[in-house]
Amino acid sequence: MHTYAAIAQLLVALSVGFVWIFRFDNIVREFKQYGLSDQTRTLVGNAKIILATLLVAGIWYPALVLVPAVLMGLLMVAAQYFHFKVSNPWSKRLPSLVLLGLCVFIAASALNYVS
Predict the structure, then answer these.
(1) For this UniProt entry, which segments traverse the membrane (predicted)?
(2) pLDDT tier at 113, thresholds 50, 70, 90
(3) Phi and psi of 53, rounded to 5°?
């Protein structure tokens, strides 16, 4: 199970990094669509990059994984809320929904490690 969790951690981290680094122009448009400030966007982006980094570090230090997985999952719940709020189509909601599912899996795996 550890191997699957590590793969999930990499998938979440790489996805977040790709979106927030290489597709930042899309993020700017979305946050404007949601009516959120530039400060909020910066705070969310920094939090996601930090949490993604911790998820990668958690491959070697499993004790780090639970909190970042839960917090990243909460950010994905917030993303779902804002997609719903502006009535985005499922094609725009699906990526954060998949990442939410991966975060739940990672957190559950981390709980098994802690126990």
Answers:
(1) 6-22, 66-84, 96-114
(2) confident
(3) -65, -40
